[in-house]
Amino acid sequence: MIYRSFFFFLALRVLLLLGTVTAVAYGIINDNYFIILGGLLLTVISVVSMYRFVAKRFVEIDDFFEAVKYRDFSRWFSEDRGSDDIRKLHKGFNLVNNTFRDINNERQAQFLYLQKILEIVNVGIVAYNLESGEVLWLNDSLLSTLDLPSFKNVSFVEKRRPIIFEKLFETYHSTNNSLKLDLHDEQLKVLVSGTIFQVDETAFKLIAVQNIEKTLNQNEADAWKKLLSVMTHEIMNSIAPISSLSETLHKQVENEIKDPGGYKLDLEDLDSGILSIRKRSEGLMKFAKTYRTLNKVSQINRSRILINDLFENIQRLLLPSLQQKDIVIEFKNTNPRLEVNIDVHLIEQVLINLIVNARHACEGREEPKIVVSAEKFRDGIQIKVTDNGVGIPEEILETIFVPFFSTKKTGSGIGLSLSKQIMMLHNGRIQVHSKEGRGTVMSLIF
User: Contact, 351 vs 385, CB < 8 A?
Assistant: First the structure.
């Protein structure tokens, strides 16, 4: 350690000084002038040596403190000249300087990051000295919102816009407050919040101003676009199988008209198909009404239905479109008495979404197949939609229920997110298990 080397040489000089003083005292006692003169000379040399030894180190320390005082951390102290303890002392000084330089660089980087953030955020920010009014920081967003040129003191705003100054700077907004500001011939809606902080003995005030009128208008426009996208997606999912089933029934009727004797029209199939179209149309109407107020729905129109009846409705509706794609669909339920308490129209919509997704996943696969099954699950019911399609990549499994996320070029990313909402309304949940290249299992748990 540095102090050990210093104390060793200092103790050596102290011992040498004691020795010379002792020699002088011995010469005085024995009246030996040669010893007295020699002792005095050595004493003076020892004192000067000790003074220089100690003074040199204090000068080095004083130089270091002077550099610290003026924050000059660029100075370099030589580590290869002088005594061993001086070199170690210089090494310690350089280490401290490097540490301070690293701290300053880190602070400057953080300040630069903060500057860039404040410059790009869409919120006006100003910080100023409460006593003098001198501006510590403001960004372009504030100047743009208030239609002001750059200023160094908030007194400028007081002179130019006294009413705005009173509302923003004189009034303390501890929480987010909505204000209306008169700018020229227009009225601007802004959200204002403020806080007071202290640095050493100086108090500063920070004010944030956000133009919420523009944000609200943009959010409203985005909401309309998303709503139209949702409605289009869900309506198309229901219209497609209705159209396919209608086309099948139309061909049967057309064949009967063209060849009454050679083709026998199956009235039961015709009646069953028309009934499916009517039910799905009613379900689509119910969906449109429910989705319109989905965020306000606290109760749903539950009714008990046999799983077999639910499966039969879905099968009649989707079988023709799946057969056109040469995709096999199979419904499994080992318990014919198994029933579930649900909003039938909404859960039909969920199952349609899942089966349509499975159909897309199975297109182009060898022996494509979709299995819809139901079983008892703990204290409830579980309905599974299983396919042998392409599967879902593991890296996007966590995002498939995010609204408007879709892997399909023409997809809107609505079906699964809406299905999840519907299941939440039923106090249920939807789960997914998938292996890329092997298929997917979507589970509805009630």
Answer: yes
